[in-house]
Amino acid sequence: MSTANPHPSLSDVTAAFEEVYPPRWAASWDAVGLVCGDPAQGVGRVLFAVDPVEAVVDEALDWGADLIVTHHPLMLRGVTSVAAHTPKGRVVHRLIRAGVALYTAHTNADTAAPGVSDALARAVGLAGPLRPLDPDPTDPEGHRGIGRVGTLAEPMTLGDFAAQVRDGLPDTPAGIRAAGDLDRRVSTVAVSGGAGDSLLDAARAAGADVFVTSDLRHHPATEFVALPGAPALIDTPHFASEWPWLQDGADHLVAALGRTAGRNGANVETRVSTTVTDAWSRAFTHV
After folding, report:
1. pLDDT tens-digit profile of 54-101?
2. Binding site listing for a divalent metal cation
3. Residue 69 · residue 46 · CB < 8 Å
4. How far apart, in whole angstroms, are the C-alpha atoms of residue 195 and residue 202?
5. Do 174 and 261 belong together in one domain?
6. What is the rounded CA–CA span in Å between residue 87 and residue 279?
7. pLDDT in tens, 209-253
8. What is the pTM of this model?
9. What residues pair up with 126 in beta bridges, in sequence order?
10. Of 40, 64, 98, 121, which sees the most CB atoms within 10 A?
11. Count of domains in the chain?
12. Annotated binding residues, as ranges?
């Protein structure tokens, strides 16, 4: 005698998640959604991670996950092969052999409200209401968009705020970097999870005292901080700036499943990966 699967199907789980982070919100160049997995398979455990790399697959298999949700896509650029001797191919083969699905929420999670930058804003200590740094013109309410702007509960020096950012984000070998007068008082803060040097002008136009983002380049940063009235800069590791969103994504999935999957939705367990997948494994500095 067969019994019903106590867990929702993969298609039910992804449908619930897409109520919160619709794929149509993703940028035209992005690759979001289901990468591999049988839509009919049951899902009891979901691991959230920033990057779809082998170390995350190891963690998922050790825990017994049925689904990995990552922020970064595995197949962002086109490939002609997923042979197992390639990095992407090894991931795909391992997942398929183990029956583990992979799903990506990237720029649709960036632009959502709340989204990736809301979680970053909370992690670094912003208080009060937040507004988009680069609003989504398709959102009539003006809540969605890339990046956020908010204020600190109390003004502080750039040096103290940089230390607060460091303490609020996962520890990575590269740490964080600051550009500007460390004694400067800062109150209005712009943040953008992930690579944000395309938003430097937006941060200045927003009246920010400091802009927190990742992957800032030498020449643009040097020229930017020399502009009159320009914000100071805090450059964080890319992985670290997006990791705070993972718990939000997990919580929103659980809530959405409660609305859409009924009793089975309560049987889904989530976990946030603690594997540091920052590309830089060690920083060498003079003591």
Report:
1. 999 999 999 999 999 999 999 998 888 999 999 999 999 999 999 999
2. 71-72, 110, 238, 242
3. yes
4. 14
5. no
6. 14
7. 999 999 999 999 999 999 999 999 999 999 999 999 999 999 999
8. 0.95
9. 152
10. 121
11. 2
12. 71-72, 110, 238, 242
